[in-house]
């Protein structure tokens, strides 16, 4: 297959999320929180590019899903706000690194050199974990939850998660033929590590911080995984098995519906 006929690849993790009023509301709250915790201030040569990189990166539903999962298990969205913010910061960093690897794309840090983009992207990741650590309140005995979420995010974005997916994706674009079955299978692995893994992480983190039971956490992790897989496969034109993924996602939500919980908002993440 020629390069012109090949499906768009690689797909950005931070592809603009499908529009939905609930998602827009959750995303607006996350961005307002970040603007409060990361204001433009001196030294401008540090904070201006940081601010630009974070708020110019295309959006994904991962942070919003974190808040929705927290609310589903009975928590308040503010309890998961630091985790949602940390996820958004990690995704903005991934977006910057994707563009540094692929020079034919428009850069997210217009007006800043590649060296500034790299340093800024690397700087916002520890800031995300700082937000999580600062949210700890010993009086409410949430230290274990926060530590668990830090570990969840670290694993999802680390060498066996998002970073591995970015490496595989870059290699596949250079070396593989889109018609080769091995190429398609490798793309599926990328989606599993990338969109699937990050959405699974977001949903699980929200459930943990909302005080969900282990069963609720794992069901929402699976739900997030199916949401991410569906989005990632759609972005790459891999349509086989999408209906099965949606059915599997709704099966996880049925558990909550059977217990009288309102699944309307969170179901919109798969019912788009």
From TrEMBL:
Protein's UniProt name: Uncharacterized protein
Molecular function terms, GO-annotated: metal ion binding; prenyltransferase activity
Lineage top rank: taxon: Eukaryota
Keyword terms: Magnesium, Metal-binding
Matching PANTHER family: FARNESYL DIPHOSPHATE SYNTHASE (PTHR43281), HETERODIMERIC GERANYLGERANYL PYROPHOSPHATE SYNTHASE SMALL SUBUNIT, CHLOROPLASTIC-LIKE (PTHR43281:SF6)
Native source organism of the sequence: Cajanus cajan (Pigeon pea)
Record keyword Magnesium present: yes
Record-linked InterPro entries: Isoprenoid_synthase_dom_sf
Region (Disordered): 1-21
SUPFAM superfamilies: Terpenoid synthases (SSF48576)
Record's signal peptide: none
Cofactor(s) annotated in UniProt: Mg(2+)
């Amino acid at each position: 297959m020629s390069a012109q006929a090949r499906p768009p690849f690689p797909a950005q993790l931070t592809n603009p999320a499908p529009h939905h009023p609930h998602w827009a509301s959750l995303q607006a709250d996350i961005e307002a929180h970040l603007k409060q915790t990361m204001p433009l201030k001196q030294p401008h040569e540090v904070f201006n590019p940081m601010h630009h990189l974070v708020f110019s990166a295309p959006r994904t539903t991962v942070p919003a899903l974190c808040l929705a999962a927290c609310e589903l298990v009975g928590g308040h969205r503010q309890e998961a706000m630091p985790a949602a913010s940390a996820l958004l910061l990690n995704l903005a960093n991934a977006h910057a690194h994707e563009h540094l690897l692929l020079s034919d794309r428009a850069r997210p840090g217009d007006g800043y050199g590649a060296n500034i983009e790299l340093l800024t992207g690397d700087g916002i990741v520890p800031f995300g974990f700082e937000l999580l650590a600062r949210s700890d309140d010993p009086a409410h005995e949430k230290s274990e939850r926060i530590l668990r979420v830090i570990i969840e995010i670290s694993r999802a974005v680390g060498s066996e998660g998002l970073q591995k997916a970015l490496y595989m994706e870059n290699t596949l674009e250079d070396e593989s033929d889109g018609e080769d079955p091995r190429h398609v299978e490798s793309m599926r692995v990328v989606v599993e590590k990338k969109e699937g893994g990050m959405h699974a992480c977001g949903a699980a983190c929200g459930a943990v911080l909302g005080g969900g039971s282990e069963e609720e956490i794992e069901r929402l992790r699976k739900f997030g995984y199916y949401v991410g897989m569906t989005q990632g496969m759609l972005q790459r034109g891999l349509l086989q098995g999408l209906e099965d993924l949606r059915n599997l996602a709704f099966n996880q939500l049925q558990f909550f519906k059977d217990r009288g919980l309102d699944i309307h908002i969170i179901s919109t993440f798969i019912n788009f």
